[in-house]
Design goal:
Elements (H helix, E strand, L loop, with lengths): L2 H17 L5 H7 L6 H25 L3 H31 L7 H31 L4 H25 L14 H17 L18 H5 L10 H14 L4 H12 L7 H4 L1 H15 L3 H30 L5 H32 L5 H31 E4 L2 E4 L6 H23 L15
Antiparallel strand pairs: 1-2
Helix pairs in contact: 1-5, 1-6, 1-7, 2-10, 3-5, 3-15, 4-5, 4-7, 6-12, 9-15, 9-16, 10-12, 12-14, 13-14, 13-16, 14-15, 15-16
Length: 444
């Protein structure tokens, strides 16, 4: 089989594993009495993202060939996700019997699973680059079409768990522990498939650059905080990172909450509706080169921040009960592509231009640490507190809490107000002059 097709299959499965549960695990947790712990599952993902990729990356550089380590990581992650599904099955039976469920078993297995999965996102890129180079391909030209199928796999998995029903209860996988079984099974499949990929030999030459764990984590790049411009950028990266996982955790429970009062098709298929966000993400990647060259890095960052305001604001006033409300939910999903892609890509480009060459990798690591690590973890934890104040789980739905004014609308508008404050302050205090010549070589 053509090697590019094989790498396309790898990328498809890589993100299908993630897409099978990332935006809908909250629906299941709420139905087994663990809804108050939704934020914990996303915080855990952010915490392991801080250190596990660096550890696994160091092992791949020195001890185990990347494609083999990719396989071992996926097999481990898949096995523990299946264990989490088993505990989820037990929690479902206890809930049906009217007994209390414990978070410890399923959460522990889940944490181990994501600890081994999150490093594979970078590791799969390493494998693809190594194989493409060994076969004489141009990674800049040939990798993006391969990587886009990762997003396709993510969306396909979301649609699968949205529509496919297992068992006698008639519920789709997006509402049950079966989503974890789908995730675990795909992980095991990809783990085995990884062992069939061409070898990615380890470079053991003495000229190879040696990187410490602190360098891989981006910790040595903290010296950049001595520069006011870089310090402001990393602080705002963390503040914006607060928004990253909020809708992954709470968008589908919110949309599904309308099903408690009406038989709306969209309310019964929240994962499908949210998948529009991933479609938008894939399409917005194509717009980035034009916007960067035309408007510059700072304005593109402001577009992303404004899009987060709209993302939350449209959720706050949207509903599945009439066409106008559904349109607002769709608009929220459409602007997600701008919110997510524009900041991540323009931020990475800013770091590349401003950090000295010897510190490039560390600076990029620090950027990811501030956004997907610290920012996302803290933000999801705070979001969980806010949601729990305004809403509570009632008969399988996350509805407005009795005796507390505001409900879901207040929750989303609080998130929108936070994003708006960050946007305004960033516009006022962050200084960056647009230089089109610096962006002349921006590619998709």
């Amino acid at each position: 089989m053509n090697i590019k097709l094989r790498l396309t299959a790898m990328n498809f499965l890589q993100f299908a594993v993630w897409g099978s549960y990332l935006v809908c695990i909250g629906n299941f947790l709420g139905r087994v009495g663990l809804g108050e712990y939704i934020s914990w599952f996303y915080v855990a993902q952010g915490v392991v993202s801080i250190f596990m990729p660096a550890i696994i990356g160091a092992i791949a550089d020195k001890f185990v060939e990347p494609q083999r380590l990719l396989g071992l990581s996926h097999l481990t992650a898949g096995a523990f996700m299946l264990l989490a599904a088993w505990f989820g099955h037990q929690a479902t039976e206890l809930t049906a019997a009217g007994a209390a469920t414990s978070i410890a078993p399923i959460f522990t297995a889940y944490c181990v699973s994501v600890a081994f999965y999150m490093p594979t996102i970078a590791l799969s890129n390493t494998v693809a680059f190594s194989i493409l180079k060994s076969k004489g391909y141009d990674t800049v030209k040939d990798f993006p079409p391969i990587r886009v199928f990762g997003t396709v796999g993510f969306i396909a998995a979301m649609w699968f768990v949205n529509f496919v029903r297992f068992g006698a209860d008639g519920l789709a996988a997006q509402f049950t522990y079966m989503q974890l079984i789908v995730c675990g099974a795909l992980g095991l499949l990809l783990g085995l498939y990884s062992f069939t990929l061409p070898r990615c030999p380890i470079d053991r030459t003495t000229s190879q650059e040696k990187k410490s764990l602190s360098q891989r984590l981006g910790l040595d790049a903290f010296v950049l905080f001595k520069q006011k411009k870089m310090a402001l950028f990393f602080v705002f990266s963390m503040l914006l990172g607060v928004s990253l996982q909020i809708t992954n955790g709470y968008a589908t429970p919110y949309i599904n909450s309308f099903a408690a009062a009406s038989d709306s098709w969209f309310a019964r298929n929240p994962t499908l509706l949210v998948s529009v966000s991933q479609v938008s993400e894939a399409l917005c990647i194509l717009l980035i080169p034009f916007f960067l060259k035309r408007f510059g890095i700072k304005r593109v960052m402001l577009m992303a921040m404004t899009a987060w305001v709209l993302r939350f604001g449209f959720f706050g006033i949207g509903t599945t009960e009439n066409p106008a409300g559904v349109s607002l939910l769709f608009l929220s999903c459409i602007v997600y592509g701008v919110a997510f892609d524009f900041f991540n890509v323009s931020g990475a480009l800013f770091v590349e231009q401003e950090a000295a060459q010897p510190m490039q990798a560390s600076a990029q690591g620090l950027f990811m640490l501030m956004t997907n690590g610290i920012g996302a973890s803290v933000g999801t934890w705070i979001a969980g507190k806010i949601v729990s104040h305004y809403c509570s789980w009632q008969e399988g739905y996350l509805l407005a809490r009795e005796g507390v004014d505001g409900g879901w609308t207040a929750t989303w508008l609080i998130f929108a107000a936070y994003a708006l404050v960050v946007t305004v302050v960033f516009a006022l205090v962050f200084r960056y002059k647009h230089n089109p010549e610096q962006l002349a070589n921006v590619r998709h």
